[in-house]
Design a protein that fits this description.
About 15% of the residues lie in helices and about 50% in strands. The chain is mainly β. It folds into 2 domains: about 30 residues; about 110 residues, Jelly Rolls (Sandwich), CATH 2.60.120.1380. Strand 4 and strand 5 form a beta hairpin. The longest helix has 20 residues.
Protein backbone atom coordinates (compact mmCIF):
# COMPACT_ATOMS: atom_id res chain seq x y z
CA UNK A 1 0.00 0.00 0.00
CA UNK A 2 1.43 3.33 -1.06
CA UNK A 3 1.09 6.14 1.40
CA UNK A 4 0.84 9.78 0.58
CA UNK A 5 4.21 10.38 2.29
CA UNK A 6 5.88 7.80 0.02
CA UNK A 7 4.39 9.37 -3.10
CA UNK A 8 5.53 12.85 -2.01
CA UNK A 9 9.05 11.60 -1.22
CA UNK A 10 9.37 9.89 -4.61
CA UNK A 11 8.11 12.99 -6.43
CA UNK A 12 10.47 15.28 -4.53
CA UNK A 13 13.41 12.95 -5.15
CA UNK A 14 12.70 12.89 -8.88
CA UNK A 15 12.50 16.69 -8.96
CA UNK A 16 15.73 17.26 -7.01
CA UNK A 17 17.94 14.61 -8.69
CA UNK A 18 18.73 16.61 -11.87
CA UNK A 19 19.55 19.72 -9.83
CA UNK A 20 21.90 17.83 -7.50
CA UNK A 21 23.59 16.18 -10.48
CA UNK A 22 24.15 19.56 -12.13
CA UNK A 23 25.54 21.11 -8.94
CA UNK A 24 28.08 18.33 -8.50
CA UNK A 25 29.07 18.10 -12.18
CA UNK A 26 27.43 14.75 -12.84
CA UNK A 27 26.28 13.95 -16.36
CA UNK A 28 22.91 12.32 -16.41
CA UNK A 29 22.66 10.60 -19.79
CA UNK A 30 19.65 8.55 -20.64
CA UNK A 31 19.83 5.93 -23.33
CA UNK A 32 19.46 7.64 -26.68
CA UNK A 33 20.70 11.07 -25.53
CA UNK A 34 23.49 12.95 -27.32
CA UNK A 35 26.13 13.90 -24.75
CA UNK A 36 28.88 16.52 -25.23
CA UNK A 37 32.19 14.68 -24.73
CA UNK A 38 34.65 17.52 -25.28
CA UNK A 39 35.39 20.60 -27.42
CA UNK A 40 38.36 22.16 -29.21
CA UNK A 41 39.11 25.34 -31.17
CA UNK A 42 40.24 24.68 -34.74
CA UNK A 43 43.05 26.60 -36.51
CA UNK A 44 42.92 27.61 -40.17
CA UNK A 45 45.72 25.52 -41.68
CA UNK A 46 45.22 21.99 -40.49
CA UNK A 47 44.93 21.01 -36.91
CA UNK A 48 45.19 17.82 -34.93
CA UNK A 49 43.67 17.63 -31.47
CA UNK A 50 43.12 14.97 -28.89
CA UNK A 51 39.72 15.20 -27.24
CA UNK A 52 39.85 13.48 -23.87
CA UNK A 53 36.45 12.09 -22.97
CA UNK A 54 35.61 13.44 -19.52
CA UNK A 55 32.87 10.87 -18.88
CA UNK A 56 34.87 7.63 -19.06
CA UNK A 57 32.04 5.67 -17.44
CA UNK A 58 29.66 6.31 -20.34
CA UNK A 59 28.87 3.78 -23.04
CA UNK A 60 28.23 5.21 -26.52
CA UNK A 61 26.82 3.75 -29.75
CA UNK A 62 27.52 6.61 -32.16
CA UNK A 63 29.67 9.73 -32.49
CA UNK A 64 29.15 13.02 -34.32
CA UNK A 65 30.57 16.55 -34.36
CA UNK A 66 28.76 19.81 -33.63
CA UNK A 67 30.42 22.87 -35.20
CA UNK A 68 30.07 26.50 -34.09
CA UNK A 69 31.64 29.82 -35.10
CA UNK A 70 32.97 28.77 -38.51
CA UNK A 71 32.74 25.84 -40.89
CA UNK A 72 35.22 22.95 -40.50
CA UNK A 73 36.61 20.43 -42.97
CA UNK A 74 36.92 17.14 -41.08
CA UNK A 75 39.54 14.82 -42.55
CA UNK A 76 39.63 11.87 -40.17
CA UNK A 77 39.37 10.69 -36.58
CA UNK A 78 40.80 7.84 -34.55
CA UNK A 79 38.70 6.66 -31.59
CA UNK A 80 40.49 4.94 -28.68
CA UNK A 81 38.31 2.68 -26.57
CA UNK A 82 38.65 1.73 -22.89
CA UNK A 83 39.34 -1.92 -23.81
CA UNK A 84 42.56 -0.92 -25.62
CA UNK A 85 41.17 -1.14 -29.18
CA UNK A 86 40.97 1.75 -31.63
CA UNK A 87 39.10 2.48 -34.85
CA UNK A 88 39.91 5.01 -37.59
CA UNK A 89 37.20 6.89 -39.50
CA UNK A 90 37.88 8.77 -42.76
CA UNK A 91 35.40 11.61 -43.23
CA UNK A 92 36.78 14.07 -45.81
CA UNK A 93 33.68 16.22 -45.38
CA UNK A 94 32.81 19.85 -44.65
CA UNK A 95 30.52 20.68 -41.71
CA UNK A 96 28.87 24.11 -41.77
CA UNK A 97 28.83 26.32 -38.68
CA UNK A 98 25.75 25.78 -36.53
CA UNK A 99 25.24 22.21 -37.74
CA UNK A 100 26.27 18.66 -36.88
CA UNK A 101 28.06 16.05 -38.94
CA UNK A 102 26.57 12.73 -39.84
CA UNK A 103 26.86 10.13 -37.10
CA UNK A 104 29.27 7.19 -37.26
CA UNK A 105 28.49 3.86 -35.65
CA UNK A 106 30.84 2.48 -33.03
CA UNK A 107 31.58 -1.26 -33.07
CA UNK A 108 29.30 -3.54 -31.05
CA UNK A 109 26.37 -2.51 -28.88
CA UNK A 110 28.28 0.39 -27.35
CA UNK A 111 31.76 1.33 -26.24
CA UNK A 112 33.47 3.28 -23.47
CA UNK A 113 35.76 5.91 -25.05
CA UNK A 114 39.02 7.19 -23.59
CA UNK A 115 39.87 9.80 -26.22
CA UNK A 116 39.55 10.73 -29.88
CA UNK A 117 42.32 12.11 -32.11
CA UNK A 118 40.79 14.57 -34.60
CA UNK A 119 42.32 15.85 -37.86
CA UNK A 120 40.59 18.90 -39.38
CA UNK A 121 40.90 22.51 -40.54
CA UNK A 122 38.58 25.48 -40.52
CA UNK A 123 37.44 27.48 -43.55
CA UNK A 124 40.31 29.68 -44.72
CA UNK A 125 38.23 32.73 -45.62
CA UNK A 126 35.66 32.40 -42.84
CA UNK A 127 35.27 34.88 -40.03
CA UNK A 128 35.91 33.91 -36.44
CA UNK A 129 37.24 30.80 -34.80
CA UNK A 130 35.67 27.40 -35.20
CA UNK A 131 34.74 25.27 -32.21
CA UNK A 132 34.19 21.55 -32.66
CA UNK A 133 32.31 19.57 -30.02
CA UNK A 134 32.48 15.78 -30.02
CA UNK A 135 29.11 14.24 -29.12
CA UNK A 136 28.29 10.65 -28.24
CA UNK A 137 24.94 8.88 -28.41
CA UNK A 138 24.53 7.02 -25.13
CA UNK A 139 23.74 3.32 -25.27
Amino acid sequence: MTTRRTVLALGLGAAIAPVVGTLFGARAAWAGDWVDLGSRKVRVFGDADRIMVADNGGIYRKLRLAVAGNGVHVERAVVYFANGEDKAYNFDTFVEQGSVSGAVDLPGEGRAILYVDMFYRRRKNGNGIAVVTLQGLSA
